[in-house]
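Much of what follows relies on a compact textual record of a protein's fold. A record is reproduced here so that you can trace the correspondence yourselves:

. . .
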Amino acid sequence: MTTLDIEPLRGAVITPEDAGWDAARTPWHLLADQRPALIVLARDATDVAETVRFARSHGLRVAAQSTGHGADALGPLNDAVLLRTVGMNDVVVDPLERTARVGAGARWSDVIAATAPHGLAGLHGFSAGVGVAGYVLGGGLGWLSRRYGLASDHVRSFEVVTADGERRHVDCDREPDLYWALRGGGGAGAIVTSIELELIALQEAYAGALLWPMARACEIAHAYREWVQTVPDTLTSSLRLMHFPPLPILPDALRGRALVQLTMTYLGESRDGDALLAPLCALAPEIDHVGVLPAAALGEIAGDPVDPLPARSHSRLLESLTADTIDRLVALAGPAVTTLEVRHLGGALRQPENPGAAGALSAEALVFASGVPVTHEQDRALHETFAALDGLGPAADRHTLLTFAGRADDALPAATRNRLGQIRAAYDPDRLLGDR
């Protein structure tokens, strides 16, 4: 085992010659073949600072990563130290202030476990298995977004290490430009070591899923389009056209089947939720798993996979969800596409109270497609589907969200990218941190 020659670390340094190399370099996204110069498994902010200083003195970059969900966005790493922060996963809740101090390696499941006993919740994503830091740095879209906006709009402060190896506290008063940039603009010339999140009071919600056979996809999808025009901002939903794999871990009702899945969360009384959902329940879903759930269960209702996958994915923001768009989406839901999803936006996303770099979203929906390319034919079909998504019609100012794209070119307006470039140049003029 190699050690850095500046200061001893609490964490480990792993080189290509070490036995644990392949395990350490493998991200959640298995199609990303990460081959850095070396890997640091950081345990605290001091480890991060020492790693940055070491990299600078040895002519290397530093690429920070927690869960590795967006690993492909980092690009080649042959001249970089891969800084894994998975060991920095502490969560400290202040129930009186309604805040949580979250380490850079924590997953949303860690936050949920710590906040739920206090009747509090963070603005986590559709899946509890996603890393908090990458999610927040990219904006963060989840089950409460139409009511409260993006998660990045609810960050009180960051602890970071900048490219000079210094630790800094970042909030609206101290380092305000960096505070703006980190809230939805990616790394912006700093490595986040912890985040102070604002929490909301939430003990339960009316939530769950309805499912129909894929043969009814066109009917259900058009009904969904009409339905979302009527719902309040306290209801967030998605519609998925799913091809469930024939895996033994899946229940009999899903295994190997093609189904349409509506998933939703409503922040209100169950009787009002019943009334809101009535038009879709009238379409006789084969499976009805909607009811009052503890807030801690919201990160599981989508049924997203928790284990790493060799999947490809693509997304697109849509300014409007038209009947023609629905027809074209249904036609794209072939067997090579595991998931073809429409996520309803709007509400607080259009007028955030305290926006960071992620800004406001004018789009009505986000469409997302993913699949596992087992064969060359499936891989080609996926790429054709992705290209078709790009042809559905442009959003006003961006193609997708940063948490889906990984890179700002497709996910942020030009003016935002220009300001982010200026801020990064101030804090990281040599582009030591992140990608080139």
Remarks:
- The chain has a mean pLDDT of 91.
- Residues 376-390 form the longest helix (15 residues).
- Residues 12 and 143 are 36 Å apart (CA to CA).
- The chain has 13 helices and 19 strands.
